[in-house]
Specification:
By secondary structure, the chain is α+β, with helices and mostly antiparallel strands. The protein is 32% helix and 19% strand. Strand 5 and strand 6 form a beta hairpin. The chain is globular and about 105 Å long.
């Protein structure tokens, strides 16, 4: 029977659906294993061959664990909210829901062709009200919670209200936006609105004034990773920094737990390090500085209070409220111009850019350790969100302060004996302190650090700050609270209405609050988000329902929130919903969550290291605090797949002609390289007819060939439509089959590494599968499999493979597994192996990689159930032992011939046999050997 991959793959994909092969339910008799991919955003372009890389890698592992007897959950769904569908709606008027459904249908069609073992009965879409019901529910829970620092967990906001009513803020230790102090009497005397404003300072989901990346043309706030070089990644529109009242999540309260949790999970060191740096824990002190000739004072955070004697200037972040307060009239115009320039740069750009810019405010601050008046500058290398948005500058011992001081001619005062700061700052982590205070000045305070080591000075200064009420010792984190508002239409609506300007939650029994219809998807003429166009977007608190805006009376009917939630809202707890996707009463049933617990293997790209992977960990820890998620960490093991890059092809047009010259002849002409569609190129040879038909301007093209062929040039670039190097997996599946695509993507190189797509090697993988098939069927369609005992050589080849592949799968070294398959098949082919005992186990081992052909052959072998339900074979070391060893026989270190010996042969017997061999006599030439060296299982060297 011929290997007809098209018929085989359609047959088994249909049967898997009919027999519900991949549907899974909780089973207490089996150990669970939860495999999850970062779910895709369904773009209009569909999948290219780079997209399935991670899905194939995780699918192989999921199938492998099932064969090992695990109850495997391997779901898939869609991150269906997103800006592209909304932008398309703005351009065409087509509702984003229609675009999204069309795109999803296209994705599903493509995914099905590749043969994944996804349990599609659990499919979720973040734009489905049944799904975002639980996103809204979680938001309400966060709104109604605060973070207790003493208990290190989220607690109900009602606890805080009771504490305020009985004792005010006395003894309070809660995460907050700013420190407040009031008595119980003061709290009880406040109005409802005043109390709500105070509670907002502590809620985990809260409204706050934040600096955002504002894109006027898109009418929305953008995340840092959506802004490139001061413009929006989508559309290239200008982006400025702007302060806005936004919904935020108090992620910063969980900073230490997010750090501690990294020690409990199996992620790469590099990814953990990225998260640690993003969270940015630092221990130091907050110190008060007074502004000269003013009642103003401000706080700075420093990890090195011991360097206070080296402060020669202060720097404020451009967004700091202090800028307006300290700037003198003489400097105002210059300061305003500088602030206007910095608005156009994101924080990420400011961190990455090492160029020096700044402006003097005209004001001075008093150093509490020296009494000196030091100038206050403004510069964009200081960020308002980290620490206090103000820094003390010690240029002798900080590289950015040093560059700033050099640029503006400010004093650089060294604090370590013998250090040279003439050309660069000195990293003062070790050494003996000096100039603290300087010997030529009258001490301003009774602290001297001179003669101490750096370590001693740090401890002494912290104690001094605390004892003299100059500030407080504090742990600081770089991690910012997450901005949770977007001025878009296509996103989850907030279940929030506004009464007297303050937000209130709609009743949880009324969830989900569904996205309304709007006439336009653009912001309103008055600058409101697109939901401002909705005519029925008000909340009736009596009837608990949405009603028309015209009925708003601010007594019982109130306006609803016009912002929507950001992209990460729907992806932060989706792994829990997959466990129980059709539960209408809860995010997840407690018993179901207790069974699946968390994700054992999570596969996705490194680009999510500081976004999704921070937010989802925070979200899950919150759900753990309120007894929804049974474990703190959502993803036990994480594998980051690399990127499949495009392999572009080029043709070379002779200038001012329509003639194209082949690669190796192009240097003889003045040519222009032009990208050509890789789908009309095979092994770098251009299909001339297809090229002429590709675009009208090439219909009359002429060619200068080499050996009758047109050879294209090539380069590795990002896979992109503009470079015509996008390879559609459908075309590969149609030409070679899904099993070939799956194996070839794994064969390209290690899963974690980026590598170029190159179809030049795909034929070899396809020939391998055909050769595997030929072990079962002859060219004349004769069924070859026989129920006969296997030989030693056959068993050795099989068990060598089982051992190799088992180890490789655990390490995600799939490319070396496929090499091992090729070696094994060649060995069995040469041995003319047709033993069922061998081939049956071979089918099982190959099944995770090439499921369609293995299902077919498993069925042919007489099995009535899917190969998925077979048992993963274990290798037997006995079959791997060598009976004989081939030794290289050398004379004075030069190899002359080989001899076979029993694996357990003694050294004396080997020496005797070598000397007795007639071939040895030729090289000994009658001499008496000085010694004979036997290297076990390798060589024998006769020294003459």
């Amino acid at each position: 029977m011929e290997y007809n991959f098209r018929e085989i793959e359609k047959k088994w994909q249909k049967r898997w659906v009919e027999e519900k092969t991949y549907q899974v339910t909780e089973d207490d008799s089996k150990q669970k294993f939860y495999v999850l991919n970062m779910f895709p955003y369904p773009s209009g372009a569909g999948l290219h061959v780079g997209h399935p890389l991670g899905y194939i890698a995780s699918d192989i592992y999921a199938r492998y664990k099932r064969l090992q007897g695990f109850n495997v959950l391997n779901p898939m769904g869609y991150d269906a909210y997103g800006l592209p569908a909304e932008q398309y709606a703005i351009q065409t008027g087509q509702h984003p829901a229609i675009t999204t459904v069309n795109n999803i249908n296209r994705y599903r069609e493509q995914l099905d062709k590749i043969g994944f073992s996804f349990d599609w009965s659990r499919e979720i879409r973040t734009c489905d009200p049944e799904y975002y019901h639980w996103t809204q529910w979680a938001f309400q829970k966060m709104f109604n919670s605060y973070y207790c620092n003493d208990k290190q967990k989220a607690r109900p906001i009602e606890e805080l209200e009771k504490a305020f009513a009985s004792q005010g803020t006395a003894g309070l230790n809660a995460a907050c936006s700013e420190e407040l102090s009031f008595t119980a009497e003061e709290w009880n005397a406040k109005s409802e609105k005043e109390q709500q404003e105070i509670l907002m300072n502590y809620r985990i989901a809260y409204l706050g004034e934040t600096m955002v990346n504002w894109c006027a043309e898109l009418g929305t706030v953008l995340a840092n990773d959506e802004v490139v070089d001061g413009v929006s990644e989508r559309g290239g529109y200008p982006v400025i920094q702007k302060k806005m009242r936004q919904w935020c999540l108090r992620v910063s309260a969980y900073a230490q737990r997010l750090l501690d949790g990294l020690d409990t999970i199996d992620w790469t060191d590099s990814l953990k390090e990225t998260q640690k740096n993003w969270i940015g824990r630092s221990e130091g002190a907050e110190i008060q500085f007074k502004v000269k000739d003013s009642d103003l004072e401000f706080t700075i955070f420093t990890t090195r209070a011991d360097t206070m004697f080296g402060v020669t200037f202060m720097v404020l972040a451009p967004e700091s409220e202090l800028v307006a307060q300290v700037t003198t009239p003489e400097q105002k115009a210059e300061v305003d111009a500088y602030l206007d320039r910095t608005k156009k740069r994101t924080e990420r750009e400011r961190i990455a850019d090492r160029s020096v810019t700044g402006v003097f405010s005209g004001a001075y601050a008093i150093n509490p350790f020296t009494g000196e008046a030091v100038p206050i500058w403004i510069s964009d290398y200081v960020l308002v969100g980290y620490g206090t948005g103000a820094i003390m500058a010690v240029p002798a011992h900080d590289s950015r302060d040093y560059a700033f001081a050099k640029h503006f001619g400010l004093e650089i005062r060294p604090l370590v004996e013998g250090c040279d700061v003439s050309k660069e700052s000195f990293d003062a982590k070790e050494g003996i302190v000096c100039n603290s205070p300087r010997p030529d000045v009258t001490p301003y305070c009774d602290l001297s650090l001179n003669g101490l080591t750096i370590k001693e000075a740090i401890a002494t200064t912290k104690k001094y700050v605390k004892d003299h009420n100059l500030g407080r010792v504090k742990v600081n984190y770089r991690l910012r609270d997450a901005i949770f508002s977007r001025q878009r239409y296509w996103g989850e609506p907030f279940p929030v209405y506004y009464k007297d300007g303050m937000p209130y939650m709609i009743d949880k029994s009324c969830l989900p609050l569904e996205l309304p219809e709007v006439a336009k998807f653009l912001p309103t003429e008055t600058g409101e988000p697109p939901l401002g166009h909705a005519t029925k977007w008000a909340w009736d608190t009596v009837n608990k329902c949405i009603t028309e805006n015209e009925k708003i009376d601010n007594v019982t009917i109130f306006p609803l929130e016009l912002n929507t939630m950001p992209g990460f809202a729907g992806s932060s707890a989706y792994y829990l919903r997959y466990m129980d996707p059709r539960n209408h009463k809860a995010l997840v049933d407690p018993k179901t969550d207790q069974y699946w617990k968390n994700v054992d293997l999570y596969v996705g790209g490194t680009e999510h290291a500081t976004g999704h992977l921070i937010y989802s960990r925070f979200w899950n820890k919150f759900l753990h605090d309120i007894n929804i998620s049974v474990v703190e960490e959502p993803f036990l093991k994480l594998v980051n797949q690399g990127m499949i890059q495009g392999r572009s092809n080029f043709v070379y047009r002779i200038k001012d002609t329509n003639t194209f010259v082949s690669l190796n002849l192009k240097d003889q002409y003045d040519v222009t390289p032009i990208h050509v569609d890789v789908n009309i190129v095979s092994n770098d040879i251009l299909d001339l007819d297809a090229f002429k038909a590709w675009r009208p301007e090439y219909a009359t093209a002429e060619f200068i060939l080499e050996d009758g062929k047109y050879i294209c040039g090539w380069a590795v670039e990002k896979m992109s439509k503009s470079m015509f190097n996008v390879v559609n997996p459908d075309m590969i599946v149609d030409k070679y089959g899904a099993d070939t695509l799956r194996m070839y993507e794994m064969f390209l190189g290690p899963v974690e590494q980026s590598k170029p797509w190159d179809t030049n090697g795909i034929d070899g993988v396809h020939r391998f599968i055909r050769k595997f098939w030929s072990l079962f069927y002859s060219r004349t369609d004769e069924y070859l499999v026989k129920d006969e005992p296997a030989t030693k050589e056959e068993l050795k080849s099989l068990h060598k493979l089982i051992k190799k592949v088992t180890g490789d799968i655990e390490q995600f070294s799939y490319n070396t597994s496929i090499s091992a398959f090729m070696i094994c098949i060649n060995e069995l082919f040469n041995l003319k192996c047709s033993k069922k005992e061998i081939l049956e186990q071979l089918v099982v081992v190959l099944a995770p990689f090439a499921p369609h052909v293995c299902e077919e052959l498993w069925d042919v072998l007489g099995h009535k159930t899917s190969v998925c339900d077979a048992e993963w074979p274990t290798y037997n070391e006995e079959y791997l032992k060598e009976d004989t060893i081939n030794y290289t026989i050398s004379f004075n270190g030069k190899a002359r011939f080989n001899m076979e010996f029993a694996a357990d042969e003694t050294s004396d017997a080997i020496q005797a046999a070598v000397l007795a061999d007639e071939r040895s006599q030729k090289w000994i030439e009658g001499k008496t050997p000085k010694k004979i060296i036997v290297v076990p299982k390798k060589i024998v060297n006769v020294v003459l």
